[in-house]
Design goal:
Two copies of one chain form a homodimer. Helices cover 43% and strands 18% of the residues of chain A. By secondary structure, chain A is an alpha/beta fold.
Amino acid sequence: MSALFDKHRALLARAQEACEQRHCWSPYPDMPAKYPDAEAAQARGLAAFEAHMGCLFELDQPGHHGARLASQEISPYTQRSLGSSYPHSDIDALFDAATTAMDAWAHAGIQTRLGVLMEVLETLYQDHLFEIAHAVMHTAGQSLNMAYAGSGVNALDRGIEALVYAEQAMRAVTPKASWQRRFGSAQIALEKTYRIVPRGVAVCFTCASFPTWNAWPSMMASLATGNPVIVKPHPATVLPMAISVRVFRRVLEAAGFDPNLVTLALDTVQEPIGKVLVKHPQTAIVDFTGGVAFGQWVEQNAHPARAYTETAGVNTVVLDSAEDLDAVLRSLATTLCMFSAQMCTSPQNIYVPRSGVRTPQGLVPFDEVAQRLADAVRALTTDPRKAAMILATIQAPQTLALVAELQSRAQPQGAVLLPASSYVHPDFPQARTCTPLMLKVSTAQRSWYAGERFGPISFVIACDSAQDALSQATQDVREFGGLTAFAYATNEAFIALAEQAYARAGAQLTINLTGPMPLNFAAAYSDYHVTGLNPAGNASLTNLAFVADRFGIAQSRRPAAS
Amino acid sequence: MSALFDKHRALLARAQEACEQRHCWSPYPDMPAKYPDAEAAQARGLAAFEAHMGCLFELDQPGHHGARLASQEISPYTQRSLGSSYPHSDIDALFDAATTAMDAWAHAGIQTRLGVLMEVLETLYQDHLFEIAHAVMHTAGQSLNMAYAGSGVNALDRGIEALVYAEQAMRAVTPKASWQRRFGSAQIALEKTYRIVPRGVAVCFTCASFPTWNAWPSMMASLATGNPVIVKPHPATVLPMAISVRVFRRVLEAAGFDPNLVTLALDTVQEPIGKVLVKHPQTAIVDFTGGVAFGQWVEQNAHPARAYTETAGVNTVVLDSAEDLDAVLRSLATTLCMFSAQMCTSPQNIYVPRSGVRTPQGLVPFDEVAQRLADAVRALTTDPRKAAMILATIQAPQTLALVAELQSRAQPQGAVLLPASSYVHPDFPQARTCTPLMLKVSTAQRSWYAGERFGPISFVIACDSAQDALSQATQDVREFGGLTAFAYATNEAFIALAEQAYARAGAQLTINLTGPMPLNFAAAYSDYHVTGLNPAGNASLTNLAFVADRFGIAQSRRPAAS
């Protein structure tokens, strides 16, 4: 079985090197147009996606006895049901099948597992990438380009990255040792064997807005270290994971392993099974991406299972000073608009000194900064064609409701900086859309922005000073969590303070970035995603801590043959 | 400050190599007699220990305002109080001081921290080893030789091992990277900085019978990764940790760091502070060694702190067949007697086929095996001088009570294989002692042995077959936990089964070992202690998982200077 490892060895070596040096690398083209034979591949992907509409998704996994669950997936682009249904398996049957499948997989050895999993990623890339991109588009609501890049190749990169660290952690354990020592007058010689022992069944919860990006690396981390995985997708976004699970199963089976190493557990919004899965006696590992409330429940209740979480928080911006304020505001506006700020890395809270932002042209007052930022956002969203490319759609109706509620509460207080409205998507006139809502508040109104307000919602917050802005922002991150942070300052002393304060708060900081790169772009092999140091999650994608505790080391020792 | 790193660089490199190859290595002599200028050093150590008797232990740490806590330590050798007292600090003051101390330590960098911590270990070894050995002897009740070897040099080795893995985990994170990529027509070049960010204050609980062995590596793991440590010793065994804490503080201070990186929190049996420490809002890491009940509470309640536990379980022996049964029984008897089986690695449950054990001389019936094992134990414990060397003393009066209770319950059932009694220690006639209690039961009487029975208590258990013995033993490990396991078989197929079953159950297996090496001897740099795969603990000493999650990685990125 090491044939598959040999096939992918060179690629894995380059990925190892990239993770060590953290430079820019990917085996995949970053734009759909650069995909090999792009047009035909995209057409095939679209056709494959459309073939799922209204169909029974075939997944030959145990424990469903023909039972089907009707999909609750509604395309944010058409606001119509996908009309599909999925096999609905009994949970205990999935756990039993996973446990049965585990031993042979664990015994197969590190290289065999890595080879098979690299083959899974290659199959996803070569045969299913556009199919999955369309599935993500019509469940999560991303634009097709973002679905390709963010939920496609970048998610594959994160999967490879997880394999890199899994390999590092397992390689640190020698398989054999010879040991000898004198005890009194006798020489004792022992042969020792060290085994990587998987912890047990992993449950992988995936979220509604970005399912593959966290799922693939989590699945790779568990599987590489020998554990089977039961995937539990959000009921609104099942199809991308159903396709993924089927690919994992087929490649595993083709490689001679039990496909029940990867299965799909489904539920509905009305009857969730999350707690049952977490507390199942066979659950040994939980990966969770999703909301803060259930994420915290998982962290508190997963024991004795290990939990790896990514939830949400307030992503903060501190504006002190800038060489080119317009460039800063353009970049901020773009990032506030990107996928209608439904990314866990989207900025939300923008802290600005009340006195204004220092520029070479002088101090730009707070109100003017806020207004120019709102203008920049408006400029990006007025033309429906441009809006469609950047805002895409709104995944959940609840997000529209939250926007409406905040807007109606803010209006009487004069706090609305930019009102939200829908726009008409040029290709999908029925699409659920919403332009950004921007509110202007002071730190006295902290309850407005104290915590994640999911969706296209941001706050420009008047602070006493740049120092106060930094201190308010990092305090909010410590208290409510935060993944990314952005600071603009021309003063190196202030930058050093910001680096220190955000490191302590555990948010990944981007400084003085302007230009065409989205501010919250996270590069695989280079940018760590989540620090695990604040309430926005306890694990990082991807580092040694993400993989090293998914297995134990069991040894046996015996007298050496003399 | 890298002068200290340079001083210890070569030693650390040899330790790295030992951990990679897991061969036999230690920088320390394994016997007290081989210590440099041994006689004088031992005399100085004894004098230093005796100087603590009846004294106020000086520890210049914050928050005690002169308050003292009278020691509850009673020497198991003299059954008299040590009569000392310790500074009794307010808990919040310790947390605040630790938090204040953390930043400079975190900023000092990896090599500086490793250098200082290696210097701590060297100072413990050169200036305090016999003082600590006597302190362990007169609190934990170990013999002086075991206190030297097990609580002295071997514990130092485990400390170095923790530094090795902490260094590996931190070295995997490059401090800097250059990253560039094209976005549209623009080339974006970023400089990235990656920071090791300590999680926060670590609380290290140490146990009554073997305090330094788990404490030093846990403290090293936390400190190497930048976290301060508050040590909470068991009230019965404070002095070894008080001496340790003072050494840490002095070396840290001499190296220019805040000594409050390491402090001592004390309580009494009547008013424990364990839960307060675990749930303290500033607690980020908990290391716990001790009883199962509180250990499980820690695992379940530590969140959001990370918990690393080692509790207890049933250590099992499976006897199928042997080339030299007498040699097997001698080795087992020795290990059952060692420190009166008050080690977390001591065997307790011995599973034997009812039909007997196969030997070249034929099948030795179950009852005969049990009797010969009891005879071997009796032979080691009849002569008080020999008994004193191997059994040492009983740490806690509760252990005597448990022995008495089990013996009186077993007697009417005819289950007593070897009754316990006290023996008169030749040097300490008042010593609390107890020879091993051995019971003979069947698997129908599982409640007798289902769980740890702490102290010199063992069970010889009649099973249906060797296969049944293995299956009962590994099931008991899965259910009640287990650290070590021992199997004797001449049949390779059975050995392979045992290796597999114990790996899945998560106990470290020793096969067919006889001779002078104690069966449960765990070699630093070579034997992993605890797998984390069963209820006997969730962490292993020492692997990457033990260290990699004690810190997070915070990054900052900014446009490269052009």
